[in-house]
């Protein structure tokens, strides 16, 4: 399936919303870093799996707010494994930060480098697919574009 590239501003705001949620989760007593990392890894399925609300199917809270959705290039729904593969590059820094001091340094450096690479890929790839999207074979699309595409298929 071939979809148009999602609006970059909407993707940025969705990412910012999800980042704020992950940052707030850090303050969960004792397990904050782990809870935050789990959210980052599973953000494209966790809201749907907890609520079973179809509005959250294949999307994080930020993507829902901004009218975006993650689609599999094979037409499959997001699942835990696909979400983890897709978001692993974003969580590498967080995972490293679990180890005090040296982990924080390595995590900050790795997180920064990977984030820059991901941004460059979103900006330069024709479909806006970052490294995580390539690993999970996914693409972020506008729900409007997705509905238009489904209308064409239904004809």
Could you characterize the architecture of this molecule?
With 155 residues, the chain is mainly α. It has one domain (8-154). 64% of the residues lie in helices and 6% in strands. The protein has helices at residues 8-25, 32-42, 46-51, 61-66, 80-96, 102-124, 131-136, 143-154, and strands at 68-72, 138-142. It has a two-stranded antiparallel sheet. The mean pLDDT is 88.
Short description:
The protein has 155 residues and is mainly alpha-helical. It has helices at 8-25, 32-42, 46-51, 61-66, 80-96, 102-124, 131-136, 143-154; strands at residues 68-72, 138-142.
Which key features would you list for this structure?
155 residues; mainly alpha; two-stranded antiparallel ribbon
Q: Average the pLDDT over all residues and give the rounded result.
A: 88
Give the proportion of residues in helices: 55-70%
Low-confidence stretches: none
Tell me the series of helices and strands, N- to C-terminal: HHHHEHHHEH
Strand order of the largest sheet: 1-2
Q: How many DSSP-defined strands?
A: 2
Instruction: Specify the number of helices.
Output: 8
Sheet with most strands = 2 strands, antiparallel
State Rg.
16 Å
Q: Could you tell me how far the N terminus lies from the C terminus, measured between alpha carbons in angstroms?
A: 16 Å
Shape: globular
Instruction: Give the strand content.
Output: 5-15%
């Amino acid at each position: 399936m071939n979809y148009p590239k999602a609006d970059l501003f909407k993707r940025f705001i969705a990412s910012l919303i999800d980042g704020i949620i992950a940052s707030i989760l850090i303050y969960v007593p004792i397990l904050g870093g782990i809870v935050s990392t789990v959210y980052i890894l599973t953000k494209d399925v966790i809201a749907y799996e907890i609520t079973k609300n179809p509005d959250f199917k294949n999307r994080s809270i930020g993507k829902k707010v901004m009218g975006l959705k993650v689609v599999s290039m094979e037409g499959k729904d997001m699942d835990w494994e696909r979400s983890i593969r897709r978001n692993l590059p974003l969580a590498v820094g967080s995972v490293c930060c679990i180890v005090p001091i040296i982990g924080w340094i390595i995590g900050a450096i790795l997180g920064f480098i990977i984030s820059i690479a991901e941004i460059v890929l979103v900006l330069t790839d024709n479909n806006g697919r970052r490294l995580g999207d390539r690993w999970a074979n996914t693409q972020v699309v506008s729900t409007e574009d997705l509905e238009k595409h489904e209308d064409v298929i239904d004809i």
